[in-house]
Amino acid sequence: MSGQKFYYPDETLARLVISRWQAIGPLKPMQERDLPTSADLAVVLNVCYQASLGEEEGRKTTFRVCLHEPEVLKNHVASVSGAQMFFDTPRPFSPQELRKLSPAIPPAGNVLLIAKQTSHWEIVGLMQTGFAFAEQIRSGSPFNWVRTPPDSLTISCFEPGNLNISRRGIVFLQLHDAMIVDPTESPLDRGILNEKFNGVLTELAADASSMGSQIRPDDLKPAADGFYFSFLNRLLFAIHEQHHGGTLLFLQPANVDKDLRTKYQTKHIEIWNILLRSLVDFKHITQLRAEAKDQGLAKEKYSSFTTLFSNVLSIDRNLQEQSLLLAALANVDGALLLDFQFRILGFGAEILAREEFQFDVHMSLDPDAKSTTSQPIDMYGTRHRSTFRFLRENPGSVAFIISQDGSVKGACSDGEKRVIYWTNLEMFFKLF
């Protein structure tokens, strides 16, 4: 498969981690710190990788490990009211020890601290980082009002053989199925798949502007993009977490009867209205925060700020509930049908694709589909084949296919009737 490079956790990968770490930079006013040597870091990566491949009493191994930097972590613990716990006798940093500790230390809110002692690495203790950041990521919320994890190199494992490498909650490198993945290159952020949503994103900004927000649509557009795709990621994550699988089709309402037999047809517009209210209130809060920073807030405006803040949190909870509703509908055999405003058009839909058409399907290795691999459509299973055929005949539509094993694919057709899909989208909403 051209364009793909395969990596093992060795010094080559360690050098790549070091270069990416330096590109992010430290939190101000902290000074940049050097990571361990590539040889030492390769040992850490290798231990984590080997640990991820085993189980402890039938349970898969999940963990987060963090380099123990006393001054960095002391400042972090003080700011989040967390706690550090050190072992009287450090434990060996080994795959076996990580597997033993895995069931007792949930990685979403805790991290194991490791340090180099002369010639070997040890687990010196653990630190509570709090569950708020993890819950924010799990919910897909666009609001970033919780403290991030510490500014230390952190390696996380949630699936066998896959490692997330992060700094203060920013995953800057992933090892996935022996391939290096750049987590900043989501096909939903830019490229062919993203462009399928251009029209509805412009519409969201225009509708929010017309709600008396006194903010021009162009000024709302970046926030509108963020809110829209945050909810989409939230929905995909909710379906992914059910481990049932499902197919999500975005299409124009006029096409609901084209190549489809829908068992349960409906119309539900609540989600779009919630997104609009959330976006408008968020922009008002942003304006008030900027004003407070410059000159402080009068009593009336402070009262308005607290009311808006409460409203936004309530609306955000409502959006989470809506994503869970859609995820439940996706459990019904057949596809869940939505228009691009997240209006529910139906569920339990059977795709009536004509089997006589033979064509190649292209797996993209980048958001712009400049590098792809292809194989005949007959190489795929029934659900994938019918979805790909539908997209070829309905080029304005977008599909997301969630497998029972948790993998998420996004697919669409380009202007040349070339069906393209992007795999492993679940990596872009996994935990840090």
Measured as a percent range, the helix fraction is 25-40%
| Shape, per Cα inertia axes | globular
Kindly state the mean pLDDT as a whole number? 83
Number of helices: 11
Tell me the fraction of residues in β-strands, as a range.
25-35%
Return the domain count. Answer: 2
Question: Uncertain runs with pLDDT below 50, 5 residues or more?
Answer: none
- Per CATH, the class of the largest domain reads Alpha Beta
Helix-strand category: alpha+beta
Could you describe the largest sheet, including whether it forms a barrel?
9 strands, mixed
CATH H level of the largest domain: which superfamily?
A: DNA integrity scanning protein, DisA, N-terminal domain
What's the CATH architecture name of the largest domain? 3-Layer(aba) Sandwich
What does this structure look like?
The chain is α+β, with helices and mostly antiparallel strands and 432 residues long. It folds into 2 domains: 11-181, YojJ-like (1 (3-Layer(aba) Sandwich), CATH 3.40.1700; 192-429, 3-Layer(aba) Sandwich (YojJ-like (1), CATH 3.40.1700.10. It is built from 11 helices and 19 strands. The protein has helices at residues 11-24, 38-52, 70-80, 95-101, 132-139, 192-195, 198-213, 217-242, 270-295, 299-329, 382-393; strands at 55-56, 59-60, 63-67, 84-92, 110-117, 120-128, 153-159, 162-167, 170-176, 179-181, 246-250, 260-268, 335-338, 344-351, 360-364, 372-376, 398-402, 408-413, 419-422. The strands form 3 sheets. The chain has a 9-stranded mixed sheet with strand order 12-14-13-11-17-18-19-15-16. An 8-stranded mixed sheet has the order 4-6-5-3-7-8-9-10. A two-stranded antiparallel sheet has the order 1-2. Helix 1 crosses helix 2 (38-52), helix 7 (198-213) packs across helix 9 (270-295) and helix 8 (217-242) packs across helix 9 (270-295).
